[in-house]
Design a protein that fits this description.
The complex is a heterodimer of chains A (122) and B (235). By secondary structure, chain A is mainly α. Chain A contains 5 helices and no strands. Chain A has helices spanning 5-31, 38-51, 57-69, 71-80, 86-121. By secondary structure, chain B is an all-alpha fold. Helix content of chain B is 83%, strand content 0%. In chain B, helix 7 crosses helix 12. The chains are: A mainly alpha (122), B mainly alpha (235). At the A-B interface, helix 1, helix 2, helix 3, helix 4 and helix 5 of A face helix 1, helix 2, helix 3, helix 4 and helix 5 of B.
Chain lengths: 122, 235
Amino acid sequence: MTFDRKHIIALARGTVILLAFLYAGNAVSALLHLPLPGSVLGLVMLAAALHFRVVRPEWVRPAAEVLIRHMSLLYIPPGVGVMVYFGLIRREWLALVAAGVVGTVAVMLVVGLLQQRMERRG
Amino acid sequence: MGDVPAAALAIAATVLVYAAAQRLYARFRHPLLNPLLIAITTLIVLLEVSGVGYERYDRGGRLISYWLGPAVVALGVPLHAQLHEIARRGKAMLVSILAGSVVGIVSGTATALLLGAPRQVVLSVAPRSVTTPIAMGVAQKLGGIPPLTAVLVIGTGVLGAVAGPALMRLARIRSRTAWGLAMGSAAHGIGTARAVEEGDVEGATSGLAIGLMGLATAILAPPIVALLLRLFPRG
């Protein structure tokens, strides 16, 4: 990654566009009382704007790439929040762990196998 | 310690620990060395040992997690790039995700009920497969404990990212779109961070699955959970 002036401007421009779509998504979600968070609506709206050439891919790509590449970093603070619930987790650990493992394995296998099967048939 | 230095210290510590965890993972490539898992564990130990506590850490932490919003929006870029490929398989994807959402709500909730977890915990478990902001909203609506749901969401994501690739190898899931879709629907954004490593197709479908799974679960969780609570009346 280089830090010349052009690159910084490209990053800033992309960041502003992503934030604009995030806040637009938040506003739509609040106005229409949708069960979806603004970020997911923003995702769909950004893809649509790119598709209809309202936004050009090169305007957002530099900032989008940095955020996507380092997405794990952004989950660290909420993940550390687990420490607040150590007491409750210690009491209910079996139910929590079992529900988590059973649910995760079930979802992954159902979605993956079903999707693969339908792709082969269609 | 004032607010600004405390926040700056928390941010610096998080970024440093993350960078170190990334290096460790790049070196050994072992799934248990998942950078997120290592970073979270390290920071918890640091906070416990130093006695700083979560609340003070989160003054800086929330400035980092704020960027989850724009990062989810940013997934619109790979989604757009893969739109053609995805549109071809759109109908199959909707069916798979709907099935996955129902299975996810039922299996998680039923397991917690059968193991005798208290009602509030059961209600916090139900929306566990979806991205944090949606899951917390659903938990709130159901009467669960939203922060506990957030913790479960992260745990589910780490589990999916760590164990998912091996599980899918065993199940012979070889289609790249099926791989991405399964990862994103079971392990939301954390799974997607792992899917991005596999390739563009996996990353884009995984990102799309976050949104579809979130929407399906937000709509389906309340009626399904109400039904399950009636079938297993307890707690």
